[in-house]
Design brief:
Layout (H helix, E strand, L loop, with lengths): L2 E7 L4 H11 L4 E8 L5 H8 L4 E3 L2 H7 L2 H6 L4 E4 L8 H6 L4 E5 L14 H9 L4 E8 L9 E8 L6 H28 L1
Parallel strand pairs: 1-2, 1-4, 2-3, 4-5
Antiparallel strand pairs: 5-6, 6-7
Helix pairs in contact: 1-7, 6-7
The protein binds 5-O-phosphono-beta-D-ribofuranosylamine.
The site of 5-O-phosphono-beta-D-ribofuranosylamine has 16 residues, from helix 1, strand 5 and helix 7.
Length: 191
Amino acid sequence: MKQKIAVFASGAGSNAQKIIDHFKASEIAEVSLIACNKPGAGVLTIAEREQIEQVVIEKEQYKQDGYAAFLKEKGIDFVVLAGFLLKIPQPLIDAYPRKIVNIHPALLPNYGGKGMYGAFVHQAVIANQEKQSGITIHYVDEHYDHGDIIFQATCDIEPGDSPEQLAQKIHLLEHAHFPAVIEQVIQQHCY
Ligand code: GRF
């Protein structure tokens, strides 16, 4: 039986699109649900176009159990956070032990935590004149950007690089690595 993946996202969804494309040819898993807390977000347009079931997250229900019961009802086996800005509540972590992974656009443990997302991350990295940045894929626990690290990749920062240029380099890294790392983790845990 193919593993069912739910992708949680809050924004444009470029990573969600790469993950959907990757698993179209996979024997082991498929993206069967897109969950989003921002009505009108680009990722919902992608879900529509790809004819993948979508759910717009409501605050009250999310506070109760993080949609854990809903995901179980839908037969979801694995949860991927791809630019999802809400903290994951304990009931959802308990329902999917080591089966929730997140991607962060920097080299954790640096440049992570509350308020450290999207452009804010790249602005801080550039402001600190770092020579390198990168991506971190990690298991999700009760803290922001904290769980065990599964994978990291780096990119060089050239003198004069803007936060926007760094963001583009980071997106290339994410799109190149995230889908394959998700597949490896599922293979390890589920087969
Ligand atoms: C990515 O850079 C991801 O690392 C971060 O949010 C961004 C989402 O981009 N957490 P997209 O919506 O997948 O294009």
